[in-house]
Amino acid sequence: MVEVLFHSLTGGFKIPILFVSIILMNLYGCKSTQLSKIQGQEANLIFPYPCDSTEVTLLHHLSTAPFYRSTDGSALSLPPFQVNRFHVQNRIKNRNCSLDLTITNLMRIDAGKYISLVYKDGKSIVDHTTRVELQIDYPPGKASCDVSEGKGGDWVSIDCTANVGSLSGKIECYQDGVWMPSLTDPSETVTLLTQTILIRKSLPVFCCSSFLDEKKERCECKDTGLFITDDDSNDPCPPLEITTMPLPTTLTENNQSDYYSNMTSSIPINMETCNFDSIQFIISITIESIVLILVFVMVYKMIKRVRNTELIKYAPLTLCCWPISSNNKKDLNDTVFSLSQV
Q1: Superfamily for the 31-138 domain
Q2: Which residues in the chain are classed under CATH 2.60.40.10?
Q3: 113 strand-pairing partners
Q4: pTM (2 decimals)?
Q5: What's the CATH code, domain 144-263?
Q6: What are 307-329's pLDDT values in tens digits?
Q7: Count of alpha carbons within 13 Å of 3, Cβ hemisphere only?
Q8: Which of 141, 172, 185, 234 has the fewest beta carbons under 10 Å from its own?
Q9: Residue 271 near residue 42 (C-beta atoms within 8 A)
C-alpha cells in the first residue's frame, strides 16, 4: 500500500493510493510485450522472475487455470493438439531466472496473451507479473484458377481466387519455371483474394497464393495447375533453361515492366520483436497522472475544509477583561449565559 502524506497549517493526513503501484509499474520496465509470428513457425516466449520466488505459473488469458506450475516440474496441463508442441524450460543464469516457453509449428489457436504469475510463500508478487501477447499471422488459402478469355494467339488470362489471410496477399503463377505477369493488382474483400494472370495455354501452369511481401519460390508454387498433361512438362520445378518470356505485342504496355521488378522483390517478414506501443503508453500515463492529481487536489480541499470548520466550531473562546460596574454587570451575565447555550 502506498501512502501520500499532506501537510497543512492545521495538521497532516495520509491518503492510501491503490493504483500508484500500477502507474509506477507502467513507468519502469516493459511488463507487456508483443510477439508476431507466422503460422507454422516457432515462437519463444520469455518470462523473467525473481530467483527467490517459491512458485511461478503460466496461463493463457482465455483460461482460468495455469497450464504450467514450477512446483509440478515439467508437466503441462494442455489439450492433445498442444501438449507435444509446448515446451517450458526453467533457466537460471548469472542470478537471472526466467521461464522460456517454446511453441513449435504454430497454429492460429495458439494466439493470445500468455501470463506468468509469481508467488513467494503463497503470496502473489504483482510487480513481477509478465504478459506476452502472441500474434499469429496466416497466409491466404490455397489458390484456384479458371481460364478467363483469350488475349491473342497462345495467350489467355486466368482468374485466380483464394481465401484471404490475416495480412495482404497475392497470387502468382509459373510456366516452365518462369514467373508469369499479372494483369491486375491483388484485390481483397472480407473473405476473398482475387487476381488475373496472363499465361500461355500451350504449357502447364502452376499457381499459388502468398503474403504480399513474400517471394515464394517456383518449386513451392503448386496450389493448383491448368493445362496439365501426362508428359514430362508437368514438373512444377523444371531446370531453368529459359530466362525470359516475351509478352504478346498487344499487351506490352503501361506497367508490365513494373510488375516484373516489383513482384520479384522480397522483403523479410519473419521478425521477432517486443513491440511497445509508445503512443498508447504516453496517453495512458497522461490520463492516469491527471486523474491522480485531481484526486489529490479534491481530497486535500475536502479535508482542509472539514478541518477549518472544526477549528471555527471548537475554537476556545478568549474573553478580555474589563472593569465591571453596576451598569454593565447585568449585560455581562446575559452574554455569558448566551454563550453557554451554543
Answers
A1: Immunoglobulins (2.60.40.10)
A2: 31-138
A3: 133
A4: 0.56
A5: 2.60.40
A6: 777 666 555 544 444 455 555 55
A7: 6
A8: 185
A9: no
